[in-house]
Every structure is written in structure tokens, then in C-alpha cells.
Amino acid sequence: MPDSSAPPDLTFETVPSTSAAAQAAQHAYFAEMDARFHEGFDMSLYSGKPATDDEDEFAPPRGAFVLGFLGHDRDAVACGGVRLLEPGIAEIKRMWVSPAARGRRVATRLLTHLEAQCGALGAHTIRLDTKDVLHEAIAMYKKHGYQEVPRYNDNPYATHFFEKKTA
Known about the structure:
CATH architecture: 3-Layer(aba) Sandwich
Number of helices: 4
Strand order of the largest sheet: 1-2-3-4-5-7-6
Oligomer: single chain
Order of helices and strands: EHHEEEHEHEE
Structural class: alpha+beta
């Protein structure tokens, strides 16, 4: 059943993570993390490489990068990437919704879409991480069946780690 409270004109498009539109959305994500994290956000600490170097991680056959659009506006209001960590286990990364699009269930629709992308990669388990100050994200993940698990990566900003079995 469609989510009647979500914008009917929300569409998703899979794009290269290095495209101009994807880079703009990721830079907005990184800027928000820098503003919300008490210690700021340094991309080099996060992944050890610039965001433009991860094209292979978020590209077929091992991943995908998705942008969300409202109506005919070609400015992305949401983004997220998925990548295989190992056969059967995928990870959702860089999930972000523009402040202007929040409160309209865009994040829920984006999460559902990214989960479907993980399934298309053959994943039966989805993992993700987040930081304690991102209360809205933590609540949404728990609401959608994600369970807290022990740390599974070396992301220095992550304080909460989640997993969901899909099969």
C-alpha cells in the first residue's frame, strides 16, 4: 500500500556517485554532518579518501548511488548509496534528506528504495551506521526493523551500528 503522507511526486534515480548532482547532494550531506557533529566532520578521517574516489564502491555490480527528486525540480532533495561489503551483506551509506524536504516521509521512502537496491545486489542482510546526535535517523532505523549490533567497521564518527535481515 502506498504511503499516502509521502509526496506523490517523489522519484528516485540511480546515478554515478561522481556525477555533478550526486556530488552536490553528498557535499550538502557532509556540510550538515560538519554542522551537527560536536567535533565537526573531516571527510579524510571518515574514509581516508576524497568522496570522488568511491565511484567503484557505489557502482554496479557492487553498489548503487541514488538521488531523490520532487516534481520536475532537478535539484536532488535526497541521496544515499549502497554497496556490498561481502556476498549477501550490503551497507547503506550517506543517506540524507534536504531540510526543505523533511517531514514529508521522504526519508522513509528513500530507505525503502535503498533496501530494494540492496536486495537487487543479492543481499539478505543490510547494515548501516550512524552517530548518536542523529536522533531522527536512529529512531527511523529502529522503527523499520533494524537491530543494534556490535561495531562492524572503523568509521570514526559512527556510534551506533545496525543490521536488518531481509531473507
